[in-house]
Design a protein that fits this description.
mainly alpha; 8 helices; 71% helix
Length: 188
């Protein structure tokens, strides 16, 4: 059992000191995830990787209720979701303040959402589309979150979701096509 899994187990059982031990073990990995995600943002992004990691960690481990993570993969999936929500909140705040809430047409170049340079408008549209995808296919939505927001490869995301890499590729193809269609419909 890895140190992270052991500490997650201690947190689940209610050990108040366990959360303090977790951050030093996962900090570097969370910082890499945050830096990779922020590298895809438009230039001029005011949110820094360190701030994103700290905010995500506070959301994950700072609550009064102990979290029930099933292991390392589940923790990092939760971290990816926390980072996604923080970035969405930041984009919404910027959109309110600077852009007047207007929507712009969004296309996914070559259907490759994992590497597209997404601005605030695109990020909000993508988040809304992912929420709709989750209603249709929760596994596909989780795969998109892991690939796009956590920066995981297809093989890594397959491991977190406990599916084969081949199945992950099939779900990824479905999710990209579904999201493209949904985003086109949203922009019309």
């Amino acid at each position: 059992m890895s140190d992270v899994t052991r500490i997650l187990s201690q947190i689940r059982s209610g050990d108040p000191s366990a959360a303090e031990k977790l951050l030093p073990l996962v900090y570097d990995e969370l910082r890499k995830l945050a830096a990779a995600r922020l590298a895809q943002e438009k230039p001029g992004q005011t949110l820094q990787a360190t701030a994103l990691v700290h905010e995500a960690y506070v959301r994950l481990a700072g609550g009064e209720q102990p979290q029930n993570w099933d292991g390392r993969g589940h923790f990092f999936a939760a971290a990816a979701e926390a980072m996604r929500r923080i970035l969405i909140e930041s984009a919404r705040r910027k959109q309110r303040e600077r852009h007047g809430g207007g929507r712009k047409r969004l296309t996914l170049e070559d259907l490759d959402i994992a590497v597209e340079d997404a601005g605030d408008d695109k990020l909000l549209a993508l988040s809304e589309a992912i929420d709709s995808l989750a209603a249709a296919n929760a596994r596909a939505a989780e795969l998109v979150k892991l690939r796009y927001f956590a920066g995981l490869t297809g093989r890594e995301a397959a491991g977190v979701l406990n599916i084969s890499p081949r199945k992950a590729d099939q779900v990824w193809a479905y999710a990209r096509a579904w999201l493209l269609q949904h985003l086109i419909e949203m922009s019309e």
